[in-house]
Write a structure and sequence with these properties.
The protein has about 120 residues and is mainly β. The protein is about 0% helix and about 50% strand. The strands form 2 sheets. Strands 2, 4, 5, 6, 9, 10 and 11 form a 7-stranded mixed β-sheet that branches. A 4-stranded antiparallel β-sheet has the order 1-3-8-7, with no helix packed on it. The radius of gyration is 13 Å and the shape is globular.
Amino acid sequence: QVQLVESGGGLVQAGESLRLSCAASGRTFSTFVRWFRQPPGKEREFVAAISWSTGGTYYTDSVKGRFTASRDNAKNTVYLQMNSLKPEDTAVYYCNTGPGLLTIAGPDWGQGTQVTVSS
């Protein structure tokens, strides 16, 4: 089983940037590495995905042009660069992997990292 550890969350002002990291141990990532987020009082939602093998990416509409997913195969780590952050991006961000469709969560989750964007 893979262990996922996120880091990089924090408190920023609107318009600023953060870079989240998701490091895998135990085994490498599965086909897709996905980012989900759970805003306060809301359900968890898909944010972005990256193909571990090809590096191809996919984003939900609300973050297109602002967020960029990338990977470092040598470090077994995936990143989510978040620019032009908005208050509505405030959420706990989770890394996810495992078999499944592009935007559907697999079985492996990290513990989450809090991102808070103030206006």
